[in-house]
What we know:
This protein has a three-stranded antiparallel beta sheet with strand order 1-2-3, with no helix packed on it. By secondary structure, it is of the alpha+beta class. The chain is built from three helices and three strands; from the N terminus they run E-E-E-H-H-H.
Amino acid sequence: xxxxxxxxxxxxxxxxxxxxxxxxxxxxxxxxxxxxxxxxxxxxxxxxxxxxxxxxxxxxxxxxxxxxxxxxxxxxxxxxxxxxxxxxxxxxxxxxxxxxxxxxxxxxxxxxxxxxxxxxxxxxxxxxxxxxxxxxxxxxxxx
Length: 143
């Protein structure tokens, strides 16, 4: 009997309710994404294509006008037009893997959380500043 490596859970739609779909898994033997659930939307297909292209060629879509980046570029552009200063810090776990998502401590997808609580905003701001003070600039980080 052939021994199969189990699928690695990547994430689940936080609005899935009790249907457990859509969910993303990784087949570690075949090095493929496994999408459980409904037909993926165009954004998900674009993200999967970008991931596969990066794995195959080492290159990825960096065109801010592409369908993949357009929603993000639009969001940041609107924020900056309102005078918002935009900074981004990435926390990288090492050893680095090719998979990324936001997870809780038990491996479940963290999903989105929205609050208007001032103490939560202060906590996030102070945590970000602590990370920013210790950060390695992107162009100086290496594996």
